[in-house]
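Renewal narrative, Specific Aim 1. Our central claim is that a sequence can be written position by position from structural information alone. The example that follows is taken directly from our test logs and has not been curated for this report. It begins with the structure tokens describing the chain, in the order in which they were read.
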């Protein structure tokens, strides 16, 4: 990956964060400010109604704080700093269940602590995107993620039983492109098998000694 590719990846990530903040936090703040205007009006005419609006606004502020926390967490997942590897996956599970409560989620995840933090964060981000795509696009009932730490390699498998898709990575969609670029940045390989009964994404990333042998030629 050359310098231009790294800059492009950074720009893509910034664009996505800006879009997410716009779609959640900024929209909510606009709504909140309209609510405050309303409260000002009610204060003159109907104090009870004004009180009710204040309660709604307070609830709204709590939601915004939650969204801000999520956005900050996404910027810098606390995998290595505070909450730890296992807790980060629990957090992702919760987030996915919030998006789709009926989902059956199975995470079978080895620890990759011994390796450097960049790999842990990259693996986490890649799996997050894969899982969010499943929830957003696949109509799947089951998500299965397996991460194996084989010493020289990390193998990731993200499976769903959804509707599948044809896998042309286009520039208008960010996520798959982002996953692919990340994997390439780590000298790994990514393979997508998708049909009408589901999708399997397999990734293999060399680590430690595995980085020295250039044998990461397949995902098997
Ligand atoms: N697991 C999946 N099941 C079904 N369709 C999928 C799956 N993963 C991706 N897709 C399809 O591939 C397209 C591209 O995915 P990608 O993550 O690149 O973009 P996006 O999710 O649409 O938007 P973004 O990630 O930029 O918010 C999706 O729009 C969807 O049609
Ligand atoms: Mg996506």
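The sequence written for that structure reads:
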């Amino acid at each position: 990956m050359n310098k231009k590719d790294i800059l492009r990846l950074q720009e893509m990530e910034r664009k996505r964060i800006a879009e997410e903040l716009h779609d959640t936090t900024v929209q909510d703040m606009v709504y909140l400010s309209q609510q405050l205007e309303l409260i000002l009006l009610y204060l003159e005419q109907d104090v009870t109604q004004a009180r009710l609006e204040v309660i709604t606004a307070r609830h709204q502020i709590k939601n915004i704080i939650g969204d801000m926390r999520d956005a900050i967490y996404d910027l810098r997942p606390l995998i290595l700093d505070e909450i730890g590897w296992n807790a980060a996956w629990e957090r992702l599970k919760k987030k996915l269940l919030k998006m789709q409560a009926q989902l059956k989620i199975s995470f079978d995840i080895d620890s990759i602590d011994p390796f450097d933090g960049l790999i842990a964060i990259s693996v986490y981000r890649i799996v997050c995107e894969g899982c969010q795509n499943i929830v957003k696009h696949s109509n799947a009932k089951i998500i299965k993620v397996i991460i194996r730490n084989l010493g020289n390699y990390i193998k990731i498998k993200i499976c769903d039983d959804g509707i599948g898709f044809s896998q042309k990575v286009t520039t208008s969609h960010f996520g798959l492109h982002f996953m692919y670029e990340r994997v390439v940045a780590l000298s790994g390989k990514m393979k997508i098998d998708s049909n009408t009964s589901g999708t399997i994404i397999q990734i293999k990333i060399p680590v430690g000694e595995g980085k020295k042998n250039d044998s990461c030629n397949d995902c098997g």
